[in-house]
DNA sequence: TATTGTTATACTCTATAACTATA
DNA sequence: TATAGTTATAGAGTATAACAATA
């Protein structure tokens, strides 16, 4: 017995007739638009979007390892090194080698790190207000829900 | 009299409490997920997502110039050169210098170009079926609508 | 003076391979 | 052997500046 989809999504997907019919096209355009605005918004705080994401992870889960952040954010271990070095140099995080497994550096936010993160979230909220300017409150919630359904590997 | 939004979007945007509250975060994750799948899907046809987008523009508006494609897709004129060279080398497009303005090369699809584009749209439809596997038909339509509202500069 | 197509160049983001130290 | 952090490096994608030809 074949698994049933939520509603009958076409078994044989209907080929799009043009670029604009593809969700992926609009996804990319919207994401680029967002990234430009996010980058500009965070410039005032001296952070890049990726640094901000990494810092948020450290604040939300103090003691998290670099490898775990990479798994959460879907990035390569090699590419987080310079991000962490930058955040450390700016005094936004501390490293503490795990006592029982010396391969692992546990990462903790400093007070300054928490402050800058709060400021960045406010800057990003301002940017998102612009990003979502044509969507009402319920549409914003719905967009977030649909997007998370697209990429999140949760629930099977 | 201040312009009114669709519904009262907060005048003072509420800062998100974490990364996951930001639409931009989910936008980026979903877009990366899509791009990986699109790239893999098009690999079979020997095209990259950007080449496919450019070719679609030529098919949808035969005679379009490179500069116009760049304006439509939001890319730099410098960066379309190698894409067009590749498409031309593969026999998917023809260039014809405009008679009344010799700066402009009008671009036309070949039959082979139209064939490969049709094949690519089918491959992408298959990929999108996976991308949107957790969304029903009406949710897919709604996602596309909301995304286009985010990035499209249309209608003021 | 402005635009088209083009070259050269640099910078960011991402991906892979290999190393070391630990386990 | 497997994992964590790291280095080096290569590949995309994207950005700017400058040029010749044309308008």
Automatic annotation (TrEMBL), chains A, B:
SMART domains: HTH_MARR (SM00347). It comes from the Bacteria. InterPro entries: HTH_MarR-typ, MarR/SlyA-like, Tscrpt_reg_MarR-type_CS, WH-like_DNA-bd_sf, WH_DNA-bd_sf. Keywords: DNA-binding, Transcription, Transcription regulation. Residues 1-152 form the HTH marR-type domain. This is MarR family winged helix-turn-helix transcriptional regulator. It comes from Mesorhizobium argentiipisi.
């Amino acid at each position: 017995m074949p698994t049933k989809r939520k509603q009958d999504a076409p078994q044989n997907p209907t080929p799009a007739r043009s670029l604009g019919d593809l969700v992926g096209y609009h996804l990319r355009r919207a994401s680029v638009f967002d990234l430009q605005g996010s980058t500009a918004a965070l410039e005032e705080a001296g952070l890049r979007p990726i640094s901000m994401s990494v810092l948020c992870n450290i604040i939300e889960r103090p003691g998290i390892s670099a490898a775990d952040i990479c798994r959460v954010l879907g990035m390569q271990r090699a590419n987080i090194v310079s991000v962490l070095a930058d955040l450390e140099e700016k005094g936004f995080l501390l490293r503490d080698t795990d006592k029982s497994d010396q391969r692992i550096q546990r990462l903790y936010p400093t007070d300054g790190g928490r402050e800058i993160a709060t400021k960045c979230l406010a800057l990003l909220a301002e940017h998102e207000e612009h990003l979502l300017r044509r969507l009402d409150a319920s549409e914003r919630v719905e967009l977030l829900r649909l997007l998370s359904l697209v990429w999140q590997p949760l629930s099977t």
